[in-house]
Design brief:
Elements lengths: L11 H6 L5 E10 L2 E11 L4 E5 L6 H9 L6 E6 L2 E2 L5 H6 L2 E4 L11 H8 L10 H13 L14 H14 L4 E5 L7 H16 L3 E5 L3 H7 L2 E6 L2 E7 L5 H9 L21 E8 L2 E8 L4 E5 L6 H8 L5 E7 L2 E2 L2 H7 E4 L3 H5 L6 H6 L14 H14 L16 H14 L4 E5 L7 H16 L4 E4 L3 H7 L2 E6 L2 E7 L5 H10 L7 H9 L3 H6 L4 H20 L6 H26 L7 H12 L9 H27 L5 H19 L4 E3 L2 H7 L2 E2 L2 E2 H19 L1 H11 L1 H6 L4 H27 L1 E2 L7 H11 L11 H20 L4 H33 L1
Parallel strand pairs: 3-8, 3-9, 6-7, 7-8, 13-18, 13-19, 16-17, 17-18
Antiparallel strand pairs: 1-2, 1-4, 4-5, 9-10, 11-12, 11-14, 14-15, 19-20, 21-24, 22-23
Helix pairs in contact: 4-28, 5-6, 14-15, 17-18, 21-32, 22-27, 22-30, 22-31, 22-32, 23-24, 23-25, 23-30, 23-31, 24-25, 24-30, 26-30, 27-28, 28-30, 31-32, 31-33, 32-33
C-alpha cells in the first residue's frame, strides 16, 4: 500500500457532524539522549471507537501513549482532551480527565496486596467507603476474570493475573479514554475473549479505546481505524475495513514480508535423535517424553498454566526434576544442564535482564569464559563478540553502552537471545519468545531459532500462540494438567489439532487456566505467614520468653525503677527507629539520624537550661524542630534533585551534623534544667509518659500506613517507584516528605535523649544510627522497601533495650550486647529473605 493513498482521518462532510475527539495529539516530538523517539506525530481518537496503533518495537507506540497518559512529557506538541488543551499532563491529571492505561508491563506494586494496589491506583470516588469497599474491589476483579484474593501479595501473582488486575483497575475508573498496550500477550483464550467483550461494552458506552498490538487478527476483530508508526514517524491512518493485511505490513516494516516463518526441516525419519527426553517429572508436570532429530524445533502447547513454563525451567536446570535428558548420546545431570543450557524466560524484565546494566554487560554475562584468558575479561574481545551478535540480530541501540532500559521491548528480547547464542549452548529453551514483539522482529527471531536448530542445537519453544507453533515447529507436544495429551509431527502440526487436544482435555466447570491461576495463589495460611505482622508476633513471643528467663534468674528485673529505665531507653530509640522505618519503607536509608539526635541535644543545651524563661524554652524547642525538618529536607533534596543515593546523601549530612555539633560545643556543657528533665521523664506509675506517647504515635502511624493515602504512597514508592509514578503517585514529594518525617521523629527522640544525658554532649547520639536500623530490620521492615510495620519497629527497639538490660541482670560482659544484637539482625535478615525469596520464586514459576 502506498502511504500517500491512506484514507484521511476525516472528510469535509464528516467534520460538521463529528463529535469532538476524546483525545487529540498534534505535532508530538520526543527525544532521549539525541535519539528521536517521536517526530511530528499526530493522533486523533473519537468517542466510541477502537483505534488500533501498530508499529515495530521501537516505533514509538508506547512513548506516544506515555504522552497521552501523562507518564511522558513531550519535548514539543499539544495535547487536547475533549477539545480542551491540556498544558501539563501528569498521571494524576490524566486520571482526573478520565484517561486510563493498561501498560504492556503492568504498573503493579509487588509488595502490596491486591486490595492495596487497587486503593493506590483507583481514585476513591470509584470505590465505596465502609464495608462495601472490599465488595466493590472483588466485583471489579470478577468483572475481568481475575481470581486473585484481595490479600494476596501482587508479587506472587502470575503475569496473566497481574495483567487482569491492571485491566480491572483501568475499567473501574469508567474512563473516557482507555489505552490498552499489548493486553492479550500473556492471556489465555478465555481471558482474551472476556477482554474483547469488555472492550466492546466500553465502546458501546462511548469510551474511546486505543489498542496497541502486534496481532493483525485482533485489529480485524476489534478496531474501527488503525494508525501505523515507523521509526517514530506517523506513516498513515486508515479505516480497518479499507486496508489489507499486506498493506498494513508494508507500512509497519517499510517493506513487503514474503515469508513470516522459515522453511521447515526436510529430514529422514530413521535419523538418530540428537535430543531424548524420557519420563521427565517435576513441579506441575509429569512423565514427559519426546525426541528430536537434528534441525527439528520442538513446540510445547496447551492452555496457559498447564506446566509449559515449569517444563522448560526443568530442562534448563533451573528447577529440580526426575527422569533423563540426553543430548548426542550424553546424559546431562541437573548441574550440567544449568551450565550448558540457554533459557529465554517469558518475563524478560524479572528473569531475563539485569535492568541496571548496559546492553554490552547483559549480552556478555553468560559467555564470560569465552572473553579472555583465565578469569579476566578481554575488553576488546568482549566488544567484538557482543557487537557482532548484536549486529547479527539487528538490535536497535544507540551504543553497546546504552542502558538496556532504553531499548524497546522487542530489542530487549533480542538482547536476551543474543546472550543465549553467545554462550554456545547445548540446548536452547524459549518461553514465549515473541511475546510483545513486532512482526518484523518476530520473523528475525523465527529465522534465528531455525538456524540454531539447523546447527545441531536442540530448540524447544513454549508458546500460547498456536499459530506460531504451527508455522515454526516440526513437532509439538500438548500439555494438559502437566501431562502430554497429544504428540504431533509433520502435517499434524496445525493450530486446530493443538487447540482441540488442549480443549478436549480441559473441559471442566472452571477452565484449566483459572485452575492454574488459583493454584498459584497463596492459601489463607500462607498469606498469614507472609504478612507484615508475623515478625511482630515472633518478637512479642521472644520478648516474653526472654523476660521470663531473666526474671527467673533475677527477681529485681521487674522492679519499678528498672521498668521505668528500660521504657525511657526504648522511648528514645523507638522514636528515632520509627523515623528510620519511613526511610527504609521508601527503599532508602537515613544514616544521619544518630548525629542529628546529638546535634539537636547540643542545640537544646543552649535553651533548656536553668535560668532561661519559658519563652526561651519554647523558642529552643521550635528551633530544634525547625533544624530537624531542615536536615530532612536537605536529605530528601539531595536524593531527589541532586541524584545522590540515599547512603551518599545521608552520609554527607551525617558528617556535616557531627561537625556542627563540635563547632557549637567542643566539649560537654550546658546543664539541662531539672524542670525540663522532670517533664520528659514524668511517669504514670512505673510507666513513663514518653513511652505512652510513643505507643500512641506508633499505632497512629500504623493506621496511616495501612489506611491512608500517605502510607500507601510511601510503600508504593518503596515497592516499585516507576509503577508508583505511572499510577499518579507524586514520588518526589513522597520521598522528600518522608525524610522530613524521619528527622521530626528524630527530634522527638532527641528530647528524651536530652533528658537522659542532662547535658549537651557533641559526642553523643552517633550510636543511634546503626541501632535504629537494627530495630527496624528486627521488626520485619524490608531493606528493599515497600514492606514493614511501625509496631514491629517498636518491638524491635524494645528487644534491643531488653537485651542490653539482660546483660546486666545476667552478669554478662558488654561483649555479649553486641553479639546478641548481631545475631538477632542476621537471623531476622535471613528469615525475611527466605520468606520473600520463596515468594519471588513462586512468582517466577508462575511466569
Amino acid at each position: 500500500m502506498n502511504e500517500t493513498k491512506v484514507a484521511p482521518e476525516t472528510t469535509a462532510d464528516d467534520t460538521a457532524t463529528a463529535t469532538r475527539p476524546t483525545l487529540s495529539l498534534h505535532g508530538i516530538y520526543k527525544s532521549y539522549d539525541a535519539v528521536a523517539a517521536l517526530t511530528d506525530v499526530s493522533l486523533e481518537v473519537k468517542p466510541g471507537e477502537v483505534h488500533a496503533l501498530l508499529g515495530e518495537n521501537g516505533a514509538g507506540k508506547s512513548t506516544l501513549m506515555g504522552v497521552a497518559s501523562g507518564t511522558t512529557t513531550p519535548d514539543q506538541g499539544s495535547i487536547a482532551v475533549l477539545g480542551e488543551t491540556v498544558d501539563e499532563l501528569t498521571p494524576g491529571r490524566a486520571s482526573e480527565l478520565g484517561i486510563a492505561i493498561v501498560h504492556q508491563h503492568p504498573a503493579v506494586l509487588p509488595d502490596l496486596t491486591v486490595a492495596e494496589n487497587i486503593a493506590v491506583a483507583v481514585p476513591g470516588r470509584f470505590l465505596d467507603d465502609g464495608p462495601d469497599r472490599r465488595a466493590a474491589m472483588r466485583a471489579l476483579l470478577d468483572r475481568v476474570g481475575c481470581v486473585a484474593h484481595l490479600e494476596d501479595r501482587v508479587g506472587h501473582l502470575s503475569i496473566a493475573q497481574k495483567h487482569l488486575l491492571e485491566l480491572g483497575k483501568a475499567m473501574a475508573m469508567e474512563p473516557r479514554l482507555l489505552i490498552l498496550d499489548e493486553p492479550t500477550a500473556p492471556l489465555g483464550k478465555e481471558s482474551v475473549g472476556r477482554l474483547f467483550d469488555l472492550v466492546r461494552s466500553a465502546v458501546g458506552q462511548g469510551t474511546a479505546v486505543v489498542y496497541i498490538t502486534h496481532r493483525l487478527a485482533e485489529v480485524r476483530e476489534l478496531a474501527d481505524r488503525v494508525t501505523v508508526l515507523r521509526d517514530g514517524h506517523h506513516r498513515g491512518t486508515a479505516v480497518v475495513a479499507e486496508v489489507t493485511d499486506d498493506e498494513l505490513l508494508a507500512m509497519i516494516v517499510g517493506r513487503q514480508l514474503e515469508y513470516t516463518f522459515p522453511a521447515k526441516r526436510l529430514g529422514v525419519d530413521d535419523e538418530q535423535p540428537v535430543l531424548t527426553v524420557d519420563g521427565l517429572s517435576g513441579d506441575r508436570f509429569s512423565d514427559v517424553s519426546f525426541t528430536a532429530r537434528r534441525g527439528e524445533i520442538i513446540g510445547v502447547a496447551g492452555v496457559v498454566g498447564n506446566g509449559q513454563s515449569e517444563l522448560l525451567r526443568a530442562l534448563a536446570g533451573l528447577d529440580g526434576h526426575d527422569g533423563t535428558l540426553t543430548i548426542d548420546g550424553a546424559r546431562l545431570s541437573h548441574r550440567q544442564l544449568l551450565r550448558s543450557s540457554a533459557y529465554l524466560p517469558a518475563d524478560r524484565h524479572q528473569e531475563g535482564l539485569m535492568m541496571s546494566l548496559s546492553v554490552r554487560e547483559n549480552t556478555a554475562l553468560s559467555a564470560l569464559d569465552r572473553l579472555g584468558p583465565s578469569r579476566f575479561v578481554n575488553r576488546r574481545r568482549e566488544v567484538e563478540l557482543v557487537g557482532a551478535e548484536v549486529a547479527g540480530l539487528a538490535v536497535k541501540t544507540a551504543t553497546l553502552e546504552s542502558p538496556v532500559t532504553s531499548l524497546s521491548g522487542g530489542n530487549q528480547q533480542k538482547v536476551v537471545l543474543a546472550r543465549s547464542l553467545l554462550s554456545k549452548p547445548a540446548i536452547l529453551l524459549a518461553d514465549e519468545p515473541t511475546q510483545g514483539v513486532d512482526v518484523g522482529a518476530r520473523a528475525e527471531i523465527y529465522r534465528i531459532l531455525r538456524e540454531v536448530s539447523d546447527s545441531g542445537v536442540p530448540v524447544i519453544v513454549a508458546s500460547s500462540d498456536a499459530k506460531e507453533l504451527e508455522g515454526l515447529c516440526d513437532q509439538v507436544i500438548v500439555l494438559s494438567r502437566g501431562h502430554v495429551v497429544a504428540s504431533l509431527a509433520g502435517a499434524e502440526v496445525t493450530e486446530e489439532r493443538m487447540v482441540r487436544a488442549a480443549v478436549e482435555s480441559t473441559t471442566h466447570t472452571r477452565t484449566e487456566e483459572q485452575r492454574a491461576d488459583r493454584r498459584r495463589l497463596s492459601p489463607r495460611w500462607r498469606r498469614k505467614l507472609e504478612g507484615d505482622y508475623v515478625p511482630v508476633l515472633i518478637l512479642a513471643a521472644v520478648m516474653l520468653c526472654l523476660g521470663a528467663y531473666i526474671y527467673s534468674r533475677n527477681e529485681r528485673y521487674l522492679l519499678p525503677f528498672n521498668v521505668t529505665s528500660v521504657m525511657l531507653l526504648v522511648s528514645a530509640l523507638g522514636f528515632i527507629a520509627l523515623g528510620q522505618t519511613v526511610a527504609l519503607m521508601t527503599a532508602g536509608i537515613d544514616l544521619s539520624v544518630g548525629p542529628l539526635a546529638g546535634f539537636l541535644v547540643v542545640v537544646g543545651s543552649f535553651f533548656l537550661t536553668e535560668g532561661h524563661s519559658g519563652t526561651a524554652v519554647v523558642l529552643g524547642l521550635i528551633l530544634m524542630a525547625a533544624l530537624a525538618a531542615l536536615a530532612g529536607l536537605v536529605n530528601g533534596s539531595l536524593i531527589r534533585f541532586g541524584k545522590f543515593t540515599p547512603v551518599a546523601a545521608t552520609l554527607a549530612t551525617y558528617i556535616a551534623l557531627q561537625g556542627f555539633s563540635f563547632l557549637l560545643r567542643d566539649k560537654p556543657g550546658g546543664l539541662i534544667s531539672r524542670t525540663a528533665t522532670d517533664l520528659v521523664t514524668t511517669t504514670i506509675g512505673p510507666v513513663p509518659l514518653a513511652f505512652v506517647v510513643l505507643v500512641v504515635i506508633t499505632f497512629a502511624m500504623e493506621v496511616l500506613l495501612r489506611t491512608r493515602r500517605w502510607g500507601l504512597n510511601i510503600r508504593a514508592v518503596g515497592s516499585d517507584e516507576e509503577s508508583a509514578r505511572r499510577l499518579g503517585v507524586r514520588t518526589t514529594r513522597t520521598v522528600v516528605t518522608g525524610y522530613v518525617v524521619v528527622s521530626l521523629f528524630t527530634f522527638l527522640g532527641a528530647l528524651i535523649l536530652l533528658s537522659q544525658l542532662g547535658i549537651g554532649d557533641p559526642a553523643q547520639g552517633i550510636g543511634y544510627t546503626l541501632t535504629s536500623i537494627t530495630a527496624v530490620v528486627l521488626g520485619g521492615t524490608s531493606l528493599l522497601g515497600g514492606r514493614g510495620t511501625f509496631v514491629g519497629t517498636l518491638l524491635g527497639a524494645g528487644l534491643i533495650v531488653q537485651l542490653l538490660n539482660a546483660t546486666t541482670f545476667l552478669g554478662l560482659t558488654q561483649t555479649w550486647q553486641y553479639l546478641f544484637q548481631g545475631a538477632l539482625i542476621v537471623i531476622a535478615a535471613l528469615v525475611y529473605s527466605q520468606v520473600r525469596g520463596s515468594g519471588r520464586k513462586a512468582e517466577g514459576v508462575a511466569h
